[in-house]
Design brief:
By secondary structure, this protein is α/β, with parallel strands linked by helices. It is built from 12 helices and 24 strands. The structure holds shikimate-3-phosphate.
């Protein structure tokens, strides 16, 4: 994919629907009774992997345009899959399914692509084993994972990392366990699972960082309208900020406070972003209006990290165009995402002339130097590909993004959205 420095980006756009909510809507819809209608479902490869897994467990799922209709089979109605459940590139599918499959009355095998095979699964395997689950992974902690369904008991567990995927796996297992499951989070992470299960009739309570899951008798299907993904909006927020003369309205973006760390950070960097909130549904949402701004460096760490974990690559791009130094810390989780995002961003930003140094738990970007185009690598990681594409729009000279096809994992229409903002 060839990209040139862009003229001002102007107009109103919708961004890709929320990936985390789309996954969960199919999962909860499948184990609920009755029909779950999902509007504005993300037709990205990760979410399609989730649909395929549940179809293999006997769940009728229809797709028409961006509407998905799931005919739920009830909490104990999933069927033994005849084939391996292939989760593709999706960590969310793989980890949440570990929790959901552990208490079923059948055996299943999970596996994904080359990236999934490298990602740590011991973080879910160990606590599930404490609940009584029978899971065994390759070399103890990698896919393929074989899960022999069995009865589980509730436990109290302190998460060693602030991971919504891990938390959600334990919540799903907890729905089937004997007794309550109590999860203590070191820092608050996205709570879409909790909100959706309660919307479906479950009983999950949260007190600060303590989540209590009551076993469920049955969940009931619901209508869900998926908002735009703030993690996808992030690319257009930063594009609007760094391409001179830009002004973009991004419609209907999910504004769950566990996801809005990017807005706090960009505002601290001096960004002009206006928020117009919509009527509150299960999940809050609204329009974001961003205008080109002079940015300054900042520090990103602590409790902010889980609230913007997927936005750190694009925030590093914003930092390259900001005056002064940006320090990203407490983010060692970046090393075990779809790629090692600390190494990947260090290498790619350096190609563009950016003064950046990786650290053990993040990176330091000294902004304000001229940024030029280059041939960038995606590492088959959708968020690295999109981050470098946004950088290319504001860099001097031409760029190329190699292996950009991975963008369809979370944002199939990404380049069309860019073009729509250029052709005004
Ligand atoms: C996700 C949680 C996060 C995030 C991922 C989606 C989810 O992962 O990075 O893209 O949907 O629960 P971790 O749980 O590993 O932090």
């Amino acid at each position: 994919m060839e990209l040139k420095a862009s003229k001002a980006l102007q107009g109103t756009i919708d961004v890709a629907p929320d990936k985390s909510i789309s996954h969960r809507a199919v999962m909860m819809g499948s184990i609920a009774k009755g029909t779950t209608e999902i509007d504005n479902f993300l037709m990205g490869e990760d979410c399609l992997s989730t649909i395929e897994c549940f179809r293999k467990m006997g769940v009728p799922i229809e797709m028409r345009g961006s509407r998905v209709t799931v005919t739920g089979r009830g909490l104990r109605g999933l069927q033994e899959p005849r084939e391996l459940l292939y989760t593709g590139n999706s960590g969310t599918t793989t980890r949440l399914l570990c929790g959901l499959l552990a208490p079923q009355n059948f055996t299943s095998v999970l596996d994904g692509d080359a990236s999934i095979r490298k990602r740590p699964m011991n973080r879910v395997i160990h606590p599930l084993q404490e609940m009584g689950a029978k899971l065994s992974g390759r070399d103890g902690s990698f896919t393929p994972i074989t899960i022999t369904g069995t009865a589980l008991k509730g436990i109290e567990y302190t998460l060693p990392v602030a991971s919504a995927q891990l938390k959600s796996a334990l919540i799903l297992a907890g729905l089937y366990a004997e007794g309550d499951t109590v999860i203590l989070e070191p820092k608050p992470s996205r709570n879409h699972t909790e909100l959706m299960i309660n919307g479906f009739g479950g009983a999950i309570s949260t007190e600060i960082n303590r989540i209590t899951v009551k076993p469920a008798e049955e969940l009931y299907g619901h209508k869900i309208v998926v908002p735009g993904d703030i993690s996808s909006a992030a690319f257009f927020l930063v594009a609007g900020l760094i391409v001179p003369g830009s002004e973009i309205r991004i419609k209907n973006v999910g504004l769950n406070p566990t996801r809005t760390g990017i807005l706090d950070v960009l505002k601290a960097m001096g960004a002009s972003i206006t928020i117009e909130e919509n009527k509150h549904n299960i999940e809050p949402s609204g329009d974001l209006i961003v205008k080109h701004s002079v940015l300054r460096g900042t520090e990103i760490g602590g409790d902010l990290i889980p609230r913007l974990i997927d936005e750190l690559p694009i925030l590093a791009v914003a930092a390259a165009f900001a005056e002064g130094t940006t320090v990203i810390k407490d983010a060692e989780e970046l090393k075990v995402k779809e790629s090692n995002r600390i190494d990947a961003m260090e290498k790619e930003l350096q190609k563009a002339g950016v003064d950046v140094a990786a650290t053990e738990d993040g990176m330091i970007v000294r902004g304000g130097r001229p940024v030029h185009g280059a041939i960038f690598e995606s590492y088959h990681d959708h968020r690295i590909a999109m981050s470098m594409a946004v950088l290319a729009l504001a860099a001097e000279g031409d760029s190329q993004i190699r292996n950009h096809q991975c963008i369809s994992i979370s944002y199939p229409g990404f380049f069309d959205t860019i073009s729509s903002l250029q052709n005004r």
